[in-house]
Amino acid sequence: MSTETLARGARAGFDLDRPWQLHPQVSVRPERFGALLYHFGTRRLSFLKSPALLTVVSSLGEAPSAREACRAAGVTEAELPAYAAALETLASSQMICARVSS
Amino acid sequence: MTLPLVEQFQYGLDAPICLTWELTYACNLSCVHCLSSSGRRDPRELSTAECRAVIDELERMQVFYVNIGGGEPTVRPDFWDLVDYATAHHVGVKFSTNGVKITPAVARRPAASDYIDVQISLDGATAEVNDAVRGPGSYATALRAMRHLAEAGFRGFKISVVVTRQNVTQLDDFKAIADRFGAQLRLTRLRPSGRGADVWDELHPTASQQRQLYDWLVARGEQVLTGDSFFHLAAYGEALPGLNLCGAGRVVCLIDPVGDVYACPFAIHDSFLAGNVRGPGGFAAVWRDSELFADLRRPQTGGACHSCSAYDSCRGGCMAAKFFTGLPLDGPDPECVKGHGERALSAVASASPPRPSGDHSHRSRPVPVSIGARPPAGHGLPPDRACDESPLAGFSPGHLDPGGR
Fold first, then answer.
1. How much is the pLDDT for B403?
2. Coil, strand or helix: which one is B245?
3. CA angle B51, B41, B35 (to 5 degrees)
4. According to the model, what pLDDT value does residue B79 have?
5. Taking CB atoms and an 8 Å limit, are A47 and B5 in contact across chains?
6. Nearest to A3 among B3, B62, B243 (CB)
7. Which helix (H) or strand (E) holds B119?
8. A chain contacts of residue B20, beta-carbon cutoff 8 Å
9. What contacts B87, CB < 8 A, 6 or more positions away?
10. Interface residue B241 vs chain A (CB under 8 A)
11. Which of A79, A98, B110, B383 has its CA 20 to 30 A from that of B230?
12. Distance from A50 to chain B by nearest Cα, in Å?
């Protein structure tokens, strides 16, 4: 029933300076706490734990880099490592993927 | 950032994460533990047009996917029409089947789509164990379906096992079957729901088996799915992967074949009936406005479990399991790993637990009825009739024996 598996565990080393995008097979549903993400390819569910993170993820596809998407969403330098970790988790579960220059 | 998700989810979501939709009560099998007491089709079943209207609503609510079940959903003549309609409207489908209709040609359909997932039910790693619960020939049918799916190139379909006292020793064998077909194993909890209420005492895993199951699941991590159904085992220590929370009416619900909306698939009873999709406002209105769901989304106190050190892990366990074993909803789960459930069960052993609201079982099986002679005169008990006024009607001191369960 289920959320079956949640994306877990962030590893270090997310490249904030390259362009990223939401995976084309992922649907996003905004919720009060942030958003739910569902990947139709891996059939996995994931969560964005804040509306600000939703703003970042939604704007990734248009931003020149993840760092820029965070800056535009009002993420401070101090908050940046937490956001990088969250994005790394999303990348490891293929919710977001690297964007080849468009 | 803000509250943990489990706290957020307690207050409900704008739409379910996970919606189970039983399309029909019709089934070719008569599994002894069927949670929806399926067998015969209900003549009031939702029509194709009504089903499409529900799918339209799910699309508007951004429900990512539905778990379609039954009964045996594939026996509906419009089954594939509805699956295609759903996926064309951005609602993914995962359907549960005993495999009876999964021919080589049918197996190619889900294999070709990212938006269709299949779950084959299997309750024994051998025909002997499986067929004792699901009926003669059902093991062969399930394995044939798996072979067809694998041959069609479908990787990662699910093999769904209800863990019982009889099959809990076969976990490695189930995993081997899944590996053989390139499938993923999914283990779920036996609930005393539907016909499951009649066999729960004999089928539910023993306390020591629960511990083995937990250790086995912890060792497998995310390799094995559980439908988040074993969260009561979190009280052993480390939580299993997934959402450790009763999602009833908060993040999950059930639509039954006639459109009734229940808090969860294991709670088909009037006490958990939130409304019907045929009512004004449809499914969305039931999800958002039902009083029952509003109740379930209020903070829970934990009741008798509140003082238990494990409450934050197991949160009192499964509502349906408590309800259908006659336990209070704010007390321990009947399979509480601390043993509180067994004690609670022995305390309610004299009362009869609530019965499921609907029974769609096949009538072909003999129904046990005893039409015997009346007890001899002078047996000492007051007459036992519906019109009796005696407060002691039906009373037998033996029924109050607290060690009776």
1. 37
2. coil
3. 90
4. 98
5. yes
6. B243
7. strand B116-121
8. 1
9. B93, B113, B115, B116
10. yes
11. B110
12. 7
Residue A51: per-residue pLDDT: 93
Is the CB of A11 inside 8 Å of chain B's CB atoms? no
Note the pLDDT tens digit of each residue in A18-65.
Answer: 999 999 999 999 998 899 999 998 888 898 988 999 999 999 999 999
Low-confidence stretches of chain B (pLDDT beneath 70): 1-6, 350, 365-405
H-run or E-run covering A82: helix A80-92
| Beta-carbon count within 10 A of A51 CB | 17
**Closest among B96, B255, B261, B273 to B188, alpha carbons compared:** B96
Q: Which tokens hold the place of B283?
A: 């499914």
Tokens of B7: 């706290």
- Three-state SS at B35: coil
A5: distance to nearest CA of chain B, Å? Answer: 5
Whether ipTM > 0.90 holds is: no
Residue B111 to residues A22, B107, B315, Cα–Cα distance (Å): 25, 6, 39
What is the tens place of the pLDDT at every residue in B76-114? 999 999 999 999 999 999 999 999 999 999 999 999 998
